[in-house]
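G., the chain you wanted modeled:
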Amino acid sequence: MPHETSDFISGSDQVFTHQPTFCSVDKEILIRALSAAEEARDFAVELLGIHDTNLGRTLKRHKMMAEEFEKSIEKAARVQVELRTALGWPQRSV
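Predicted structure as tokens:
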């Protein structure tokens, strides 16, 4: 299944420009990647809940750790959307 990636190439004026590149990826690999992204999101949600219950966010380091979990959750959710789109599957509510 062709998938667009992006490479940056140097132009004659030494300015970097965006050049799309297409590659084929086996559908089974995309399905496994989607499964891993779903598990990663679920795991980060669970860890965030445990973190907030046990430590809260009152200390700066605790708040920063919780924010990192939230970033991981958002990143995994974005990857899920991208993989489902690449597979031609409908999106799920997250």
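Helices lie at 27-54, 60-87.

Shout if anything looks off.
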